[in-house]
């Protein structure tokens, strides 16, 4: 049996994601936590050329990070590597049944395992609808990218990881079935609706879309080339690689401030590059950032290029948008927090979206297709908070419950 080794750090959400992938496949692995060990950190960098975690090896072959592992898992290649027969062959059955015959039928399928998805899970399972929740790659959603949760009523200074675990346990306790899988195709032009994942296909009377949002990239030269080699979207995961180094944080919102403050635990200096001359972060976070001696601001500027020596980041080409002046700023790492794009690719030309690709819903969380609901950051580009996502998830669940009752000619409480 091939041996799996995974290098991790203490605050690494992407490492948790990789662990969950392996656990969902019942694969044992050895975890090597490099947090605090400069020697191991340098060893990993030498072995892989990477400055991010997790880094995963199967036997002595470096297979990459959590994204690479997810691709292997979802494509069935991981099963092949471990000579697992039977798994994955269900796809043949699914193809034969693409008309829906013989597929497992559920009352509700919730697509997404973030705050909105788990809130929908709790409500629909308490309504005895035995929902299926498909988590996608990021169990816990965007909250898995942060350390603490300070603004969710009742949860003051709670570790985000514990909050996520609590949501899952609560949803499962009431009867939500949580599956680690990714939805790859939907057909909402039929009832029951058709939902296909990497290794299953289902029918469902109602759907709740909670696919949230993903970090926006800068799309500049050097960004992709140096991804994991100095360019990062997760300070809590990769900050440890930058002890006593100079970093740039790009962005002016809450996430940028939080992550910049976190990075000062490791870095010698953190420069926040913002395209405007004032921040849009909340007042409390602005104050914390302004008070931090290690944080400095480069106003009205954008990063035009991320430069490196072929192996790792060495500088950022900055341009002042007011004067057009440019400068190469010597730097060891660039952390990017410039907002999010909704995860709606799957629903393109399937449901109505606005001009920024957010799902359009009415005040009952219903999309333009009866029986298909949406909740959370996938439709909300204004508030984008865990509490609002959770509230919308609960509302979508109640609407789905009512929809199913009507579909089955059952009385619905309150009618
Ligand atoms: C760094 C950071 C810090 C934050 N801090 C706070 C904070 O302190 N307080 C606060 O209130 N908010 C905070 N937020 C915002 C908060 O995390 C979001 O508003 C909230 O997570 C939105 O929840 P959601 O369920 O709508 O979407 P998400 O959390 O984005 O979850 C989306 C889910 O959908 C899944 N998914 C996507 N595509 C598919 C697919 N094809 N198939 C199946 N599943 C899929 C993903 O795997 C994920 O599980 C923070 C965000 C970030 C990035």
Features:
single chain, alpha/beta, FAD/NAD(P)-binding domain, seven-stranded mixed beta sheet, 11 helices, 23 strands
Q: Write out the CATH superfamily name of the largest domain.
A: FAD/NAD(P)-binding domain
**Uncertain runs with pLDDT below 50, 5 residues or more?**
86-92
Computed CA radius of gyration, to the nearest angstrom: 22 Å
Average pLDDT number: 91
Overview of the structural elements:
- The structure is a single chain.
- The protein has 415 residues and is of the alpha/beta class.
- Helix content is 28%, strand content 25%.
- Helix 6 (115-126) runs parallel beside helix 7 (160-173) and helix 9 packs parallel to helix 10.
- The longest helix is centred in the last third of the chain and has 22 residues, at 386-407.
- The N and C termini lie far apart (59 Å).
- Residues 86-92 have low confidence and may be disordered.
- The site of flavin-adenine dinucleotide (FAD) has 39 residues, from helix 6 and helix 11.
Describe the SSE topology.
Blueprint: E1 4-8, H1 13-24, E2 30-33, H2 38-48, E3 55-58, E4 61-64, H3 66-75, H4 77-81, H5 90-96, E5 104-111, H6 115-126, E6 132-134, E7 148-149, E8 158-159, H7 160-173, E9 177-179, E10 183-187, E11 193-197, E12 201-209, E13 213-215, E14 231-232, H8 235-238, E15 246-250, H9 254-263, E16 269-273, H10 283-291, E17 295-298, E18 301-308, E19 313-320, E20 326-330, E21 333-336, E22 340-342, E23 372-374, H11 386-407
Parallel strand pairs: 1-2, 5-6, 5-12, 6-9, 12-23, 14-21, 15-16, 15-21, 16-17
Antiparallel strand pairs: 1-3, 3-4, 7-8, 10-11, 11-12, 13-22, 18-19, 19-20
The structure holds flavin-adenine dinucleotide (FAD).
Flavin-adenine dinucleotide binds at residues 111-117, 134-139, 141-143, 145-146, 149-152, 182-183, 210-213, 255, 343, 346, 376-378, 384-387, 389.
């Amino acid at each position: 049996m091939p041996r799996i080794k995974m290098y991790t750090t203490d605050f690494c959400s992407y490492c948790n994601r990789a662990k969950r992938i392996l656990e969902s496949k019942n694969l044992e692995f050895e975890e090597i936590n490099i947090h605090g060990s400069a020697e191991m950190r340098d060893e990993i960098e030498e072995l892989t050329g990477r400055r991010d975690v997790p880094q995963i090896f199967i036997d002595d072959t470096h297979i990459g990070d959590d994204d690479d592992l997810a691709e292997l898992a979802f494509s069935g290649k991981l099963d092949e590597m471990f000579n697992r027969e039977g798994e994955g062959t269900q796809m043949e059955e699914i193809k034969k049944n693409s008309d829906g015959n013989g597929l497992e039928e559920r009352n509700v399928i919730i697509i997404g395992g973030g705050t909105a998805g788990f809130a929908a899970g709790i409500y629909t399972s308490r309504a005895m609808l035995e929902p299926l929740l498909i988590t996608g790659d990021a169990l816990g959603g965007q909250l898995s990218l942060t350390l603490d949760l300070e603004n969710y009523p009742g949860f003051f200074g709670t570790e985000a990881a514990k909050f996520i675990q609590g949501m899952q346990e609560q949803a499962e306790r009431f009867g939500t079935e949580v599956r680690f899988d990714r939805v790859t195709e939907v057909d909402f032009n039929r009832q029951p609706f058709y939902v296909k994942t990497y290794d299953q296909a289902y029918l469902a009377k109602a759907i709740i879309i909670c696919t949230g949002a993903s970090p926006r990239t800068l799309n500049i030269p050097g960004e992709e080339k140096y991804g994991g080699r100095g360019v990062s979207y997760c300070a809590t995961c990769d900050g440890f690689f930058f002890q006593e180094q100079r970093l740039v944080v790009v962005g002016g919102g809450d996430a940028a401030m939080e992550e910049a403050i976190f990075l000062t635990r490791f870095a010698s200096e953190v420069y926040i590059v913002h395209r405007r001359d004032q921040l849009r972060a909340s007042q409390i976070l602005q104050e914390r950032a302004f008070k931090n001696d290690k944080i400095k601001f480069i106003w009205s500027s954008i990063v035009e290029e991320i430069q490196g020596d072929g192996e790792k980041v060495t500088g950022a080409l900055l341009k002042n948008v007011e004067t057009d002046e440019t400068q190469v700023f010597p730097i060891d790492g660039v952390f990017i927090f410039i907002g999010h794009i909704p995860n709606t690719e799957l629903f393109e030309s399937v449901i109505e979206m606005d001009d920024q690709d957010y799902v359009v819903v009415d005040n009952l969380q219903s999309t333009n297709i009866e029986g298909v609901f949406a909740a959370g950051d996938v439709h909300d580009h204004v508030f984008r908070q865990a509490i609002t996502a959770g509230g919308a998830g609960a509302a979508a669940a109640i609407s789905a419950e009512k929809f199913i009752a009507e579909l089955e000619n059952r009385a619905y409480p309150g009618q």
